[in-house]
Amino acid sequence: MAKSPETEQPQKAIGWAARDNTGTFSPFHFSRRETGADDVTIKILFCGICHSDLHCARNEWGVTNYPIVPGHEIVGTVTKVGNNVSKFKEGDKVGVGVLVASCQKCESCQQGLENYCPNMILTYNSIDRDGTKTYGGYSDLIVVDQHYVLRFPDNMPLDAGAPLLCAGITVYSPMKYYGMTEPGKHLGVAGLGGLGHVAVKIGKAFGLKVTVISTSPKKESEAISKLGADAFLVSSDPAKVKAAMGTMDYIIDTVSAVHSLAPLLGLLKVNGKLVTVGLPEKPLEVPIFALVGARRLVGGSNVGGMKETQEMLDFCAKHNIAADIELVRMDQINTAMERLAKSDVKYRFVIDVGNSKLQ
Ligand SMILES: [Zn+2]
Ligand SMILES: [Zn+2]
């Protein structure tokens, strides 16, 4: 049984919580633990709205433990540090992503792959080591072990940089791991939402030729003129799809609706790689002939470890990459969520927590 964070911990906090599967948000008073020896306390300034936040708020994955305060694209300022903290000092700009703890002993943790630790603790909707529930970034402050806190680069905008902490690392990590970074190679990005638009920018920074693969032709001009894609393929146009068969080296598939992999695999060359990072609610079929016949690979990936997440932030800062965002106040979350459910956002909502009235 989780203890009650509303009464039992010393640092008072206020956030916005969903309390049932309508996913409606309203102000929520709770508390955070004292700043421990290895902890950093952060005043939250901005928090991105990830599609997982919406799934969890509405209990669409069936694992939500209400009340829930989502948010795992957190950017803020350090206000307190514990005695053992050497990486950060008061006033530093920092970020927190999808996880706030892991066992630090297992093979994954030893390799810096905390994101695959079987005992990792998520930033929200998890049970922390002290038995309390974790609450995320739709709130005024958070206390996190320094190992899970990222240094936010000086030239990175705090608001537009926030979505990199989930959306950015979700596409950067598989590109690095699967070797999808060779300059001049051809990357397809399936789906142009929060993840896809960042994948386009990161792909261009690696020197790839980038083609956006999308069902909606109206996104074409913006994909090319604003996001910097080289080409646009309307996946519902059979003639264009046929012409593009066998032309791509890699595909990042960000589509989270149930869809067929066969048309995407057909776009790949021999030895082509398709990595899925969206999470459709039902299993996808793997068309074996399309794999076997051209030595193609289908892989998966889930965010990234702490070291690699820092590397990604530094890479994005160096290449002036941030998300395209719509800034909203906390009292606009319910409207933002309704729009997000309809994919009506370019391309990520970010909550201006620091300038919001929270109660
Ligand atoms: Zn996320
Ligand atoms: Zn571990």
TrEMBL record:
Domain Enoyl reductase (ER): 23-351
Catalytic activity: (E)-cinnamyl alcohol + NADP(+) = (E)-cinnamaldehyde + NADPH + H(+)
Any Pfam family: ADH_zinc_N
Pathway membership: Aromatic compound metabolism; phenylpropanoid biosynthesis
GO MF term list: cinnamyl-alcohol dehydrogenase activity; zinc ion binding
EC numbers: 1.1.1.195
Top class in the EC scheme: oxidoreductase
Species per Swiss-Prot/TrEMBL record: Citrus clementina
Name of this chain's protein: cinnamyl-alcohol dehydrogenase
Annotated SUPFAM superfamilies: GroES-like, NAD(P)-binding Rossmann-fold domains
